Protein: ABC transporter, ATP-binding protein
Amino acid sequence: MQIIAGMFAALTFLGPIFVSLIFAQKHLFNITPSIIVTLSLIANHIVTSLSDITKFQTSIQSTRILRKFEVVNEQILPLKKKHINRIPSLIVTDLSITLENKRIFSHINLRLNPDEKILITRKSGVGKTTFLKAIAGIIKPSSGSVKLGKAFLTPADYTYISQNVWLFSDTLRNNLTLFEKYTDQELGMVLKEVGLWDELPNDPLEMIIKEDHSNISGGQAQRIAIARGLLRKKQLFLLDEITSSLDNENSDEIRKLIYSLPISMIEIAHNYDATLLKKYHVKIARFERNGLKVEKY
Structure:
């Protein structure tokens, strides 16, 4: 594109001057030196404009990957680093959802204290995922509010992870940082925290993740997503069926990792290990269309 634009620009610049000189020499169309100068200035303006277009085209191509972040449905947009010691309680008040004139759920209330974890379960199709997306702001509720303390919850406050982790064909470094600035020490620390540093090949930050993710396992992909949240100092994790495509062993390892972190968490899950939840003091709640029923161990 740049070569073609350059050739066309040169032709645009020299063509009028060359033709004008011929016309002036043969006394055609009353071409004068002043007209030649004017044409030269016009041609120069055209060349400059073409050069700018070429630069814009290069910029568009170079930011293609970054612009993909804007349509990702997992709330993994590049966010400013947020250093907080302790988040307030998450307060869900009178949350209701109606889609296409169909009531999905109504008047759901939930209070999640700092470092508290809850697993919400029920059969498929009752609105668990819709509830989590409403908390995250992915779906707008028909009524009710979601606040972190006294402020409304925003994407800068949480990490949202679904069963299908979004990764792109690039280095592990860029998949973690999303092209924000972090030191190698910060990246190494979160990789060690999720158990990937020693598990991946030498120099893991420069490891290229294939487009089809064939060189990493499902459990490793989930841990990369967790590391993204830890890197940004997120203390609220919203998890939607993140272990549904994993075997029991990997599911347990992912849950042990998350449950041991000093974070607040809401997990949506169909299958779970009650013994593991009890060990890590994770509450279990049954999702009903008109409320959450917290179970006792």
Observations:
- DSSP finds nine helices and twelve strands in the chain.
